[in-house]
Specification:
Elements: H1 8-16, E1 21-22, E2 34-38, H2 43-48, H3 59-67, H4 75-84, E3 87-91, E4 93-98, E5 106-111, H5 114-120, E6 126-130, H6 132-142, E7 152-156, H7 168-181
Parallel strand pairs: 2-3, 2-6, 6-7
Antiparallel strand pairs: 1-4, 4-5
Helix pairs in contact: 3-7
Length: 185
């Protein structure tokens, strides 16, 4: 045990005594062009069944800046309007053991089949990983073969409130690629 830090083995063992946490189903319209992949939904997001439910997360404010989809709308209206912009949402992790909501506490992740999803949805041309953890899981999921032909994969700064490396304005600038790649209906 490290002085002043909990014993990781004991903590991991106690987490595994509970059932694994389950992710949220994807949000997808009829012909998505962009797929935004997070790592795993926060505890709050899983409880309410909504992507990016933490009010401190920058995802919905960024979407408002890029697409004009107001944060004040209901969640169902926001995701419908985002799907109309041909943007799909999903997470890399289908299920895992997790303590809290931080990516660093994800244990034994079962990854979603991104290659299969892209094959099923051949209109997707851009896959954007929301943060480093999503990017790492995406690389693991796609393996050495990489993405299917015609699909570009990029990593964007995390919209998590834990990511203070870039300002909100800088994140909006980097996230513009999803708006520029999407084709409004």
């Amino acid at each position: 045990m490290i002085e002043g830090k909990p014993d990781l083995m004991k903590r991991t063992s106690s987490i595994k005594d509970s059932d694994p946490k389950q992710g949220i189903l994807p949000i997808i319209g009829s012909a998505p062009v962009v797929l935004v992949l997070g790592s795993f939904p926060s505890a709050r997001a899983r409880t309410v069944g909504e992507y990016y439910a933490n009010p401190l997360n920058h995802f919905w404010p960024i979407i408002e800046e890029l697409f004009g989809i107001s944060r004040s709308l209901s969640y169902s209206e926001r995701v419908r309007l985002l799907a109309d912009q041909q943007v799909a949402l999903w997470d890399m992790v289908d299920s895992c053991y997790q303590e809290g909501s931080m990516d660093s506490t994800i244990y034994e992740p079962a990854l979603n089949d991104i290659r299969g999803f892209l094959t099923t949805h051949p209109t997707i041309r851009l896959v954007a990983a929301n943060g480093r953890t999503a990017e790492r899981f995406l690389k693991r999921s796609l393996g050495k073969a990489g993405p299917p032909a015609g699909v570009t994969v990029i990593s964007l700064p995390s919209t998590s409130p834990a990511n203070a490396r870039e300002s909100f304005h800088q994140k909006v600038q980097r996230w513009r690629v999803i708006r520029d790649s999407a084709v409004p209906s």
